[in-house]
Amino acid sequence: MTSTSSKPVGIVTGAGSGIGLAVATHLVSKGYRVVIADMNPKTGTATAESLGADAKFIQCDVSSYRAQAQLFKQAYEWGGNRLDFCHANAGVDDRENLYHMKEEVDEEGLVKPLNTKCMEVNMEGVIQGLHLFKYYVRRSKDHNGGKGKFVATSSAAGFYAMTTNPQYTASKYGVIGLTRAAGPELVKEGITVNCICPGFVPTNLCPPGILEVWPKEHITPLTTVTKAIDAFLGDDTMTGQAVELSQGNLYPRPMHDYPNASQRWIAEEAVHIWAKFYAKVPEKAGY
Ligand SMILES: NC(=O)c1ccc[n+]([C@@H]2O[C@H](COP(=O)([O-])OP(=O)(O)OC[C@H]3O[C@@H](n4cnc5c(N)ncnc54)[C@H](O)[C@@H]3O)[C@@H](O)[C@H]2O)c1
Question: Mind telling me which residue stretches traverse the membrane in this protein (predicted)?
Fold first, then answer.
């Protein structure tokens, strides 16, 4: 029997419901110890209890850096000073409508800001999650050689556009950009970074009543999500990939093609020039 401390340890955010719940359940079935991170204590606790001793609920709002930093510290310690996997999955749709929000000015006559909670959860929360994941994986060397797998949840809205939710669309494009930029770099030290981009998955994210009118053939089941997780877990070289999930299928999606040789040169060759210059200001670029 595997001892507790030798089991790989994962964090799944938004694990109290839907996609996160399915992934956390899947990981426990594969022998992981999993932290159920969610801002909802009711569903989070229920999920952890249903999964038994290999799951622990930690309440966390991923849009708060401090809360996420506490989450990662507690998860690492609970896991016996190891971290192997993170699914940065928690997400919400636009909390305020860009087009139809109530337009108000403050006492100085300045237009009040748009509520950008959606960006803070879906984008800022994921970047900080990757930052924290890297920190703790590097300190798990005794268990896993400092190697880990980070998966984020983007969306098909990260390739196309959901005009009803411009912030949601922007955040999901952002997650794909983060994946494609950080994936090829972090894999050099054994950390893979990929994201899933699901079509329509029936979860609590969908507004009430929508399932009753949604055609069954346009549903992507949760089994397609766990299939993608298995693909990432089973491949130490797969990184920087935005994988579209539709119906039962996984579609790794390449970046846009370059329109001309100059753009290809800038994207693929000029990286050496950037690196040379950033090397002179390491505190800025981290080189
Ligand atoms: N359902 C779909 O069709 C679909 C398609 C593409 C992408 N996604 C993405 O999948 C992810 C999971 O969504 P879901 O469909 O499972 O929805 P869901 O509503 O069933 O689950 C989301 C979970 O995230 C939690 N959460 C929300 N804000 C949080 C925060 N700030 N900190 C911590 N936890 C928070 C909620 O409490 C909930 O348990 C989201 O990022 C969503 O954008 C969903």
Answer: none
